[in-house]
């Protein structure tokens, strides 16, 4: 696909999504905005896990960094008398700065770690988020988090769109820009280098790829996307608090990325829609079944998590072909490694169709 | 000084539990080269079995034994039923499947048993023996320490002195070669999983009576701490798990005592990142830093 | 590359398709230019209200029984003809104690279910996240289930009203009680590391003065090991420990101290001082011994009151005989107060007439002290009664305190007697 067609596709999808908001009632538009924010973070995460081969279980913390950055800047700007679009843009930049900084730091650590170690560090990070909010309670507002001033619909649009629809527009536009950026990285030279490192770090370095730098870059880019997602959520809900960015939410992001197909941007979109809508659908369903209150209470919440868990296992176990292709070779055991040709689109490669033999792990097009 | 002594003493018993749980992570790592992120959820599931049996029979010990047996069976089921499908070529798929397992187990427990916290009684007196005005160890703490040390010693004997232990190690380190030499490598991996799950369940069962009680999320924090312990000690090193556990247990107690409970999770993160950056293989890792 | 584009397109189509499905019953988002003054949630014979409650998740333990009790009370009212000829439909949404979920479910209640009012939304962090939204939408936000002082800001949040006696009041009352009964005792405090602890400390220091607490320790809900904190309190020679703790951590504090062979006096917030719940944590054997003399606060009827007898009957009949504890009384009392507000909001209630009824100061509720609602007070209780446990029975002492401004005054208990069948009427 040429760059021009790529950009046209992106623009087309954005217009389509914005047109779609006219079909939705306010609550659905709110859900759409949440899906967009989740998609932002998931697109970054799919780049990180699926393309560069680094697993983060703590992306919710990076979203929170974006949310806090946005809220702190927005409140400071409100105090300084700035509002409207300038406030939104400046606060958004602050969100990117906050999440980008945190992502850079994590990325520097990540470049030296990998596999389960990185997963564990990011896990500890998201678990420590409420502690950070409490220790720096003076700035971050502790458990209750921060509230920001309300951004209404701009005056010229007020007759045309409702508040939730306007928020959905903002969410869609931001997401469009961020995801296009991620997709560009993925299909460009940087993405190629990431795949090269994921496939075989040593071989990539021998051919002149600066592995550490690329890994840090991947982590930072994915953190920026997550931060943008956090900023959208903060804009839509006018608040940010540690309780919204739990380990459970972090794992849901992983679900979104895996279920849709690792490394695929479209997959991240589908996955995000699933993780936002499924709990609500299940709630509606169990509500409609007219179950005894006790049973309904036990199913609520739990059933959704159960379905997500099963989805994760089944997708990873039953479709190893489609997914294993995106699984980086560097994580395979030492000694099993073979110089791999770097396929431009590893997601269409089927490794598991090949026998598990140390030397047979070269990749072929399906 | 009294304060320091008190904090050291309280940290020690918790540290022993962390060490035991970390040891279970080491076991599985050595057997299957997987960091089992579902270890906590599996342990809490076994704890529910122990709780139910204790409630039924009235005996703590029967409950404990059933819990450990259930954990071993769960280990078997997970290895044969789920982890078998993990791509052997990539730890990533193992980690993601394990996370799926966490969600499945915790939500099942939530649906079957509800979210209520069920207090578990300790089999021993929990009031500590006072030495020179400072409460040191309770009989229960002593029990925890003894059990933890005994299990570790037992495992050291198993791996160091018995033929089964030798086969387990061989199958883990060189599966192809050991298979050629007649070791049933697949069976050894399964045994490793069962052993590891039982040890993790034991750690959870020792910890829960000292906390609020049993809940589907009882082991969430334990897992994070134990992971930090395993990393500090080195995923390959059982001795490292022991020392790491005691270090982390005491460190957490000191941090809570002097800096406040709120800071503890941050301290874990700092410790984890610090150790990984300085010695990615853990402090007790003999070999060159391992990255996967 | 060629294989790639259809993938994206297919995915995009899937998303759009999902969106269209979701749109299903949906109307249009564009602001409707309707002049119809139909009041949301008010039908000819039914009133629909909603709530957000933690029914699942790690923090849910011990809270889910509140909304069940409220629902049972409403079922009882509905079976007796409802309020002003309308039955009450109570929609309870689970937010898992997660503010992100709260925002979603409250929007669902307001926009999709079009509830008349939000009742008894539970939790400080969770409810704070929808405070602005509910007030912008001008939805009555009645009787929030948390003791934060956030809810009592009539200027800023005219649609929000609290229910619990706030944490400042509780801290001040317990400190004053300590001072009145044992002026020379060393008073310390164990508090949660959030606004609960902060505001409680603020109240205690109003009475004892800055630095009047000999030791202050904090705990975090994520860490169930409080040995270090209890050890510090013991080392400081504390004789009375004020507890700004939830029930589970009250039990942990008592249990840990007992393990250290230390038996000081405990003065707990009403949020962490419910006897049956504490017995559940501490066990039938040990619990009653540890809790002898346990002091706490309350503002609702307790065991032995006619209200409690009525609630017990309702609980057996409409709540499947669920365990009866402080949460049950709390949930039904909230239901009663809402029913009373609704009864006084007129035959054709509007959102405005509902909050006017609360602000009028005419509501009496069923508490042991007069309600504090008025034009410039959105708090239900400015004071609390002191309770204590004797021989396994938790009951009010003669002490009660009211916080007026910055001063605590001793007052008499003034319980509201039960009239009729516990169903409020318009007059």
Automatic annotation (TrEMBL), chain A:
GO function terms (MF aspect): branched-chain amino acid transmembrane transporter activity
Classification via InterPro entries: ABC_transp_permease (IPR001851), LivM-like (IPR043428)
UniProt xrefs under CDD domains: TM_PBP1_LivM_like
Cellular component aspect of the GO annotation: plasma membrane
Entry's localization field: Cell membrane
Keyword Transmembrane: yes
Keywords associated with the record: Cell membrane, Membrane, Transmembrane, Transmembrane helix
Pfam families recorded: BPD_transp_2 (PF02653)
Membrane topology, as annotated: Multi-pass membrane protein
Transmembrane spans: 29-50, 57-77, 89-110, 117-140, 166-185, 216-238, 244-262, 269-291, 303-327
PANTHER family reported for this sequence: HIGH-AFFINITY BRANCHED-CHAIN AMINO ACID TRANSPORT SYSTEM PERMEASE, HIGH-AFFINITY BRANCHED-CHAIN AMINO ACID TRANSPORT SYSTEM PERMEASE PROTEIN LIVM
Name of protein: Branched-chain amino acid ABC transporter permease
Species of provenance: Agromyces seonyuensis
UniProtKB/TrEMBL annotation, chain B:
InterPro entries: ABC_transp_permease, BCAA_transport_permease
Chief location bin: membrane
UniProt organism field: Agromyces seonyuensis
GO biological process, one term: amino acid transport
CDD domains: TM_PBP1_LivH_like (cd06582)
Superkingdom assignment: Bacteria
Entry GO CC: plasma membrane
Protein name: Branched-chain amino acid ABC transporter permease
TrEMBL record, chain C:
Domain of life per record: Bacteria
Domain Leucine-binding protein: 47-391
Keyword Transport among UniProt keywords: no
Assigned keywords, A-Z: Signal
Claim: Acyltransferase is one of the keywords in the record: no
Signal peptide (residue range): 1-25
InterPro entries per UniProt: Leu-bd, Peripla_BP_I
Family statement drawn from the similarity comment of this UniProt entry: Belongs to the leucine-binding protein family.
Protein name as annotated: ABC transporter substrate-binding protein
